[in-house]
Amino acid sequence: MPADPARLEALRQAILAEAARLAPASLEALARPAPVPAAGLLPLAGALLPDREAVRGWLEAALAAPRPGAGFARDPAGDLAARLAAALLARNQFLPIGAREEGRLAGLVAGALRSAAAALATARTEAALAEALAAGAEAFRADLAAFVAALAAGDAAPALREVVSAEYGPELQLRVLGLDPGALLPPVLDLGCGPGARLVGWLAARGVDARGVDRVAEPSERVQRGDWLTVPLAPGSLGTIVSHLGFSLHFLHHHLRPGDEALRYARRYMELLRALRPGGTFAYAPGLPFVEAHLPPDRWRVETTPVPAQPPASPGAAALPWYACRVTRTR
Questions:
Q1: Which terminal Cβ of the chain has fewer Cβ within 10 Å, N or C?
Q2: C-alpha 136: how far from chain center
């Protein structure tokens, strides 16, 4: 396929549109794959058929020697897998999808794309290509169902249910965390900044040295796509760390469940505190009383404020630590 960015982006958008059309209504439904009718893939087949040799050649070359992180043109499987991981996490933010799991997803996507390349090599009509693409899509959905079911296996794994998450406005986040935007000690790190990194952009537009990290973020000069448990943090390098319904929410989630993941969060929490310079603050919501109570008061000042909203109306919600916390390094 000619290295035409516009044509490649059109192909990418067509694949994403088909994925959205075929996506089931819930994670539970995703774990029970259904047949894929070939008739629905006739438009995509019709668009691919005239350029089938060029598309096949590009696919085979890109899959044979991918360049991770280089985008759809150089790493189609990795690019689409990142979108798929983001879609799954949008359904349930507690799904354990890290670099290893995303690598597995990329392998599944690569298999589906190789199947598509093989179909392009043999199909001569729209109907034949649609049938071959449907067969490949069914195989991929079966593999994806097994992948999702494995994520929910074990006592400590989250159930396959929808868990609402959203990106909140920058001013609301700062108000909930009890922070004055004009008094933030730079540099600022938004831990779990969300796909759009809205707070990072808002602060940067006001002259604040801000950056963000998130598993589903769009990488940019200020934003890193990565895991908050493993992204490197130099001791004493940060002035403010903020995480609104992010790191501490996941820490609390694992604290209330069996398994060893809470221990990883506890270690990371202390690494985050060590990343603060004197006078720096780690601000987060919800609170973590089982950690905050053990911080040495001669080094850390702990301040809490109620979250200005009602806790969720669900069993046990009234017992949640529904407050924001600011931990400041005093020396």
A1: C
A2: 26
Position 186 pLDDT exceeds 60 = yes
User: What confidence score (pLDDT) does residue 245 get?
Assistant: 92
The total of other beta-carbon atoms located within 10 Å of residue 194's CB is 23
What pTM was estimated for this model as a whole?
Answer: 0.83
Angle between the N-to-C axes of helices 99-122 and 126-151, in degrees from 0 to 180, rounded to the nearest 10:
160
Contact call for residues 8 and 73 (beta carbons, < 8 A): yes
Cα separation values, 225 from 70, 90, 192, 232, 277, Å: 13, 15, 10, 12, 24
What would the two tokens of residue 109 be? 């996507």
Distances (CA, A) of 236 to 92, 207, 278: 33, 21, 8
Distance, in Å, from the CA atom of 182 to the CA atom of 195, rounded to the nearest integer, reads 25
Q: Are 188 and 162 in contact (CB under 8 A)?
A: no
Residues 315-326: tens digit of each pLDDT: 555 667 889 999
Question: Each residue of 239-288: pLDDT tens digit?
Answer: 999 999 999 999 998 998 888 889 999 999 999 999 999 999 999 999 99
Question: According to the model, what pLDDT value does residue 58 have?
Answer: 92
β-sheet bridge partners, residue 245: none
* C-alpha count within 13 angstroms, C-beta hemisphere, residue 48: 32
Q: What are phi and psi of 273, to 5 degrees?
A: -65, -40
Nearest to 326 by CA among 239, 218, 196: 239
